[in-house]
Amino acid sequence: MPMPENDYRLILFDAPDDPQALRDLFRAVMGLHPTEAMQWVKRAPGILPWPLAKGEARELLDALYEQGIAAEARRVDTVPKLVPPRSVHRAAILGDGLSIGGLRGEPAHWIPWAKLELIHAARIASQDEFRDPKGPGWAGTLSAGLNALILRGPRAPRTRRAQRISRDPTTELHLVRTDPLIAFRIVADQMNYSDLGDRLRPSAAENFPVFLRELLERADHAHVTPSTRALLDPGEEAEPTTYPSAQAMIDDTTLRLLWAWYRRDRERDRNQGEEPGADG
Predict the structure, then answer these.
(1) Which of 61, 78, 95 lies at the terminal end of a domain, its last residue?
(2) Quick check: 232 and 209 in contact, CB under 8 A?
(3) Do 42 and 106 share a structural domain?
(4) Secondary structure class of 48 (helix, strand, coil)
(5) Do the beta carbons of residue 254 and residue 82 sit within 8 Å?
(6) What's the domain of life for this entry (predicted)?
(7) What's the maximum distance between 2 C-alpha atoms anywhere in the chain?
């Protein structure tokens, strides 16, 4: 079945050095209003959902190349769909692959190391909690009960300032395998690390780095993001990414997977002496 004419998506891998120039490009090619065009500029880097014809995609790619912005256009049926990722609560690192267990410990999935395409670990911000610094106490409860018996309403409580309770961000790991394309999600403090054996430590905060480090040693063909390495070896110039939500992280995992494919395809094109262009 032939694809519809306008079924390409533009993927920008860089933020523009000159947002106004990118805005003007979107206006010229897609006929957008200036305000709407700037909304698309703010999505960079990212996947733009605006439908494009192949000719429009080619024109945009040529102009983006001149602006020094790494980009590609893909048909919508070739854009990876990683949602919802499969939750993992137990996994064993073996010599030839990763064995993912089910809730009862039964084998649920097998990932050969050669099929593990992407490893992306990061942090997700947790919203602060607000709590009443002082509960009503037994006297207040007794008073409310007596008022109810004599059909009187409860006394209006005094205004108290809620206390902010800061919560630490959670650590998550995304694994993407190919053939078939499946995304897996590991939440560090919800993982069963019993398969670490004699390396098992008392807490998830200690076990997760042990698990991740061995995973990286085994999966030597996978694309590993800088955030993943920064979680193991943080420094002033290398900090793990912190996302505002789980959805924001899976969106970025998709973009990083596309970036890995983009680099692989460009390397292949250079080896073959081909000119890169729109995916067709």
Answers:
(1) 78
(2) yes
(3) no
(4) strand
(5) yes
(6) Bacteria
(7) 90
Burial 16-45 (b: 16+ CB within 10 A, else e): beeeeebbebbbebbebeeeebbebbeebb
Mean pLDDT by 10 residues, the chain (280 residues): 73 96 95 92 92 94 96 95 95 96 86 98 82 60 63 57 74 97 97 94 96 97 96 84 97 97 90 62
Last residue of a domain, one of 44, 78, 112: 78
**Residue showing tokens 């610094």:** 133
User: Residue 87 burial (CB < 10 Å; 0-12/13-18/19+)?
Assistant: exposed
Please check whether residues 74 and 200 belong to one and the same domain: no
Q: What is the pTM of this model?
A: 0.81
34-41 vs 19-30: helix axis angle to the nearest 10? 120
- Residue corresponding to tokens 């014809």: 53
Count of structural domains, the chain: 2
- Do 50 and 171 fall within a single domain? no
